[in-house]
Amino acid sequence: MIHSYLMVSVILFCIGMLGVISRRNVFTVFMSIELMLNAANLAFVAFSRLHESMDGHVLALMVMAVAAAEAALALAVVILLHKHKGKLDTNVFSLLKG
Questions:
Q1: What is the Cα 94 distance to its own chain's centre?
Q2: What is the DSSP letter of 89?
Q3: Residue 89 pairs with which residues in a beta bridge?
Q4: Residue 91 three-state SS
Q5: Is the CB of residue 93 less than 8 Å from the CB of residue 78?
Q6: Domain limits at 77?
Q7: Which residues are CB-contacts of 10 (< 8 A; sequence separation ≥ 6)?
Q8: What sign has the CA pseudo-torsion 18, 91, 93, 27?
Q9: pLDDT class for 25, splitting at 50, 70, 90?
Q10: What average pLDDT does range 12-35 have in this prediction?
């Protein structure tokens, strides 16, 4: 039973990783990161159910809180990036170095 949950988790994580690597739009990259975090949450909860413990549930809840904070900061960065540069391409971040 746990194998199916872990397989879904691995598939979701791989889709998220593929989205981070292959996409240029900042929104798509952040959505892919959220997908990877949700895949990790699914694995935490699956292992928690296997061991009949609440530790994985608590850890998944903490990951969700961090993901919400990350989403708020990412949205602020995206808004500022669009305001100053006019586009949401990830190549713009390399222009911010200099």
A1: 22
A2: B
A3: 25
A4: coil
A5: no
A6: 2-95
A7: 39
A8: negative
A9: confident
A10: 92
CATH code of residue 88: 1.10.287.3510
How many domains are contained in the chain? 1
Prediction pTM value: 0.82
Token pair listed for 10: 């691995």
Residues in the chain: 98
How far, rounded to the nearest angstrom, does the alpha carbon of residue 86 sit from its chain's CA centroid? Answer: 25
Distance CA 3, CA 27 (A): 31
Q: Quick one: residue 52, left, alpha or beta (phi over 0 = left, psi -120 to 50 = alpha)? A: left
Task: Note the pLDDT of residue 23.
Answer: 86
> Amino acid identity, residue 12?
L
Q: Which residues contact 8 (CB under 8 A, 6 or more apart)?
A: 42
Token pair of 85, please? 């540069």
